[in-house]
Specification:
By secondary structure, this protein is α+β, with helices and mostly antiparallel strands. It has two domains: 58 residues; 209 residues, Sandwich (Jelly Rolls), CATH 2.60.120.560. It has four helices and 13 strands. Strands 1, 3, 4, 6, 9, 10, 11 and 13 form an eight-stranded antiparallel β-sheet that branches. Strands 2-5-12-7-8 form a five-stranded antiparallel β-sheet, with no helix packed on it. Helix 1 runs antiparallel to helix 2. The longest helix is centred in the N-terminal third of the chain and has 31 residues. It is elongated and about 90 Å long. The two termini are 22 Å apart.
Length: 273
Amino acid sequence: MKLSLLFQILTKEKIEKFTEKKRLFWKVTHYQAYWISWFKGIVMGFLIGFLFSCENSKKSSEWTYLFDGETTNGWRAYNGKEIPKKWAAIDGNLTFDTQLKKEENWEGGGDIIYHVEEFENFELYLEWKLPVGGNSGVFYHVKEGYSAPYAVSPEYQLIDDFGWGKLNNSELEDWQKAGADYAMYPADEKIKKLKPAGEWNSTKIKYTQERVEHWLNGELIVSFVPYSDDWYERRNSGKWDQFPDYGKFKKGYIALQDHDSPIWFREIKIKKL
């Protein structure tokens, strides 16, 4: 509702009553009474508008922190009851403390989920850094009971684009690079600004039924419509043949990947949309 219309609804009747019934008591002319009433209405309207603004601001700031900076509260192993020992809160960061392995020696198995709540439409923000050649990922709409989150859930890829190839004597495909919706939608490499290993990157994932967005260091690098014809074409292109439930669920947990690589997270927070 426009504020001008709100002013009229709130003040029209009061103006008439004031000018006719209270004018003599206030000892003012009809002209003065009229403008005094309008002034009261305008003040009231601005007050209501201010309250609406405060309420909207409150809603927009309703972030839930998934990591308190001091403990691993809220996190546990995927398909488990406790958090794996290599995950710890160290120096204000949620850290996976392990020795970096080459891809050929990858074992994994230490993925963790934020088990307190499942999320459907959301905006997730976090900051992360990797060592040279490091690899990890962020999953959403995770359901348990599978071999690993990647068997069922979309993944925002976290990887050192620059050092992984040298470490593994191989070359990354675009769909494997940082910021990609892994094996589905590659990041726009023309605008992507990935920071070197050892430096902090910021990631934002925005998910709604209308559009999914991947952001990296303030740049929108991936955007697509979930469950569109294009999405299903990519989903059925062969990569997920062994994982028939991939992308099946539209609500689930947030998960962080153990890819046998150290990784550091901070400022992990989420907002429902």
